[in-house]
Amino acid sequence: MEEKIKIFVDCHIFDKNFEGTRTYITGLYQELIKDNSKTFYFAAKNTAILEEVFGTAENVKYLELAHKNKFYRLLVDIPKLIKANNIQYAHFQYIVPPIKYCKYINTIHDLLFLEYPQYFPWMYRVKNKFLFKWSVKHSDIILTVSEYSKQQIQRLFNIDNVVITPNAVNDVFFAEYNKETIKLSVAKKYKIEDYFIYISRWEPRKNHNFLLEVFVENNYYRDFFLVLVGKRDLINKKFNNLYNSLPESIKNKIIILENLSFDDLQLLVKGAEVSIYPSIAEGFGIPILEAAAAGIPSLYSNRTAMKDFSFLHDNGFDPFDKNDLNEKIKINLNKGKKMNNVEIIKEKYNWKYSALLFLEELNNNSSKTK
Which of 9, 18, 144, 206 is an S-S bond match for 149, by CB 3.0 to 4.6 Å? Predict the structure, then answer.
């Protein structure tokens, strides 16, 4: 009987707040673990969180990381676990360990800091350019999430074989729901109604200040709230300066939230009048598709990887043109109906499809070494 392939998955991100890489690992591996010809070893400091996500099965194992410190994790902890469990493949996000006891799978979600250096700290750029490039050169399978990011990696790191395993939309966003019931739940919990929503962590490239300018300058605060959901990673001085200059009556219409549960997040998405994503640069942009899947008019910046979403009724806008966004908002508010492109999203962006692409590349690589 042929021995099962053992796949180690670095899940240290599950010990932190929700991020795009956590969503990627969750969606991809909830599909992959259905393949009983492989055994999956998920590793994090808090393995209870992992068990909640991936459940219990004969081919699913949990390994506890000894420390949260990233240097110890990569230099000592993970290589030790890989060797002790005779792992054949180990999957990482961006950075791989320098001590190599098995083949490495590496997902590079984007290289935006090289394309748009003005939005990233100098030390971050220098450090990660070296670490990402070194990691790519020492990986056996390179994955990414969009055609845009694939071209980035190929061009900037001189790598040919890059496989796209797209981000996908959770089934909960496709489920039928009663809009009025959702809005009542949002009003009860957050004391808001009739709102625009933007879901993204905070960085200058995320362009929160641009959206706030459009919201204020066009007097949308008279009839709507603006809900901004996401972790504050990097300070956006333009946003802060504008926000602090506003009278309290307008500030009260701007709701800033973070550390929400997934249930609360999807509740807020479904209750929104419009979802707006004005980011200047993205490796993907999953909130755009989640809102559209839920039938919410989803307006998005037409730059970088987000160009792929042109099927969303021409709802792309120039993230530097306030008039363009304002016109798109007015058009969609006047439509008063759900978007009808759900089937396109289901077909192109589902985890089963991404898992099949992953397994195809893994099996091809495995067969080469036999």
Answer: 144
> Confidence class of residue 339 from pLDDT cuts 50, 70 and 90?
low
CB 50 within 8 A of CB 62: yes
Edge-to-edge strands, sheet with 316-317:
254-257, 225-229, 195-199, 274-277, 298-301, 316-317
Q: What is the DSSP string of 277-343?
A: E--S--S--HHHHHHHHTT--EEEE-SGGGGGGTTTTT-EE-TT-HHHHHHHHHHHHHH-S--S-HH
Residue-wise pLDDT tens digits, 172-225: 999 999 999 999 999 999 999 999 999 999 999 999 999 999 999 999 999 999
> 338 versus 7: which is more confidently predicted?
7
For residue 165, give the nearest of 107, 250, 225 by alpha carbon.
Answer: 107
Distance separating alpha carbons of residues 253 and 89, to the nearest angstrom = 50
Q: What tokens does 117 get?
A: 């250096």
- Quick one: pLDDT band at residue 1, thresholds 50, 70, 90? very low
Calpha distance 281→210 (Å, rounded): 14
CA 7 to chain CA mean position, Å: 22
Region for 303 from its dihedrals, namely left if φ exceeds 0, alpha if ψ lies in -120 to 50, beta otherwise: beta
Give the integer Cα–Cα distance in Å for 65 and 45: 5
Write out the H or E segment, with its range, that includes residue 222.
Answer: none
Residue 189's alpha-carbon distances to 172, 175, 267, 273, in angstroms, are: 20, 21, 10, 17
* Distance from C-alpha of 216 to C-alpha of 46, rounded to nearest angstrom: 43
